[in-house]
Automatic annotation (TrEMBL):
It comes from Hyphomonas hirschiana VP5. It comes from the Bacteria. This is Phytoene synthase.
Length: 219
């Protein structure tokens, strides 16, 4: 009688550690907020933010409109294939998205709308049109599908984004405290106060500010 193998096999083919490190490097604000989410939802947030990075950096990677459209279409088709149950393409973010779609934490329709939004901003060469509000809503939905903070979120997200890229010194709207369950998706919006003052906060300052938002819901 043969002995049972002691070999352990990975539960996932997705290089989550590498993706997480990438999000931390390119989008530290959202990455810090995501640390407060439960483990499963944290992965979904990381997958979402990794996709957003791939989409937003099209404007940096190409200068020709046609080449940009090809990249957006590549992501659109990759998401369609995942929704159809096909094997994900060999891109680590595709692997991550596929896992989270299967788990029900990411919705292909929401991701397609994200692609559309970044494509529009690219075509119009206008970062103010990037779908910050939709990105925030999609992140919030991972944590709580039903909430009453959608209007506040859509109001504050563009203000945060404009302040972060130093396109505006306006603090933006005063909004109601965010529901506790949503805070890991939106606590970084509190950093708009520092950004609109022209400051570039260090990691410690960011963590302190985001921790305060987590405790109070005030962003």
């Amino acid at each position: 009688m043969g002995s049972m193998s002691n070999e352990t096999r990975p539960l996932t083919q997705t290089p989550w550690e590498e993706i997480d490190k990438r999000v931390r490097r390119v989008d530290e604000d959202r990455w810090i907020s995501s640390r407060f989410a439960p483990a499963a939802e944290r992965r979904a947030l990381v997958a979402l933010y990794a996709l957003a990075y791939e989409l937003v950096r099209v404007r940096e990677a190409v200068s020709e409109e046609t080449l940009g459209l090809i990249r957006f279409q590549w992501w659109r088709e990759a998401i369609e294939e995942i929704e159809a149950g096909k094997a994900p393409r060999g891109h680590d973010v595709c692997l991550a998205i596929a896992e989270e779609v299967v788990a029900g934490r990411l919705k292909p329709g929401a991701l397609q709308k994200l692609v559309d939004g970044y494509q529009l901003a690219f075509l119009d060469a206008d970062r103010a049109k990037e779908p910050e509000g939709w990105l925030g809503l999609t992140a919030a939905h991972i944590l709580s599908p039903v909430h009453n903070w959608a209007g506040d979120l859509q109001a504050v997200a563009p203000a945060y984004a404009a302040a972060r890229r130093h396109a505006s010194k306006a603090f933006g709207p005063i909004v109601s405290p965010a529901p506790k369950q949503l805070r890991p998706a939106i606590a970084h919006y509190r950093l708009r106060k520092l950004y609109c003052e022209g400051k570039t906060p260090n990691p410690f300052t960011k963590r302190f500010s985001i921790m305060k938002a987590m405790n109070t819901g005030e962003v």
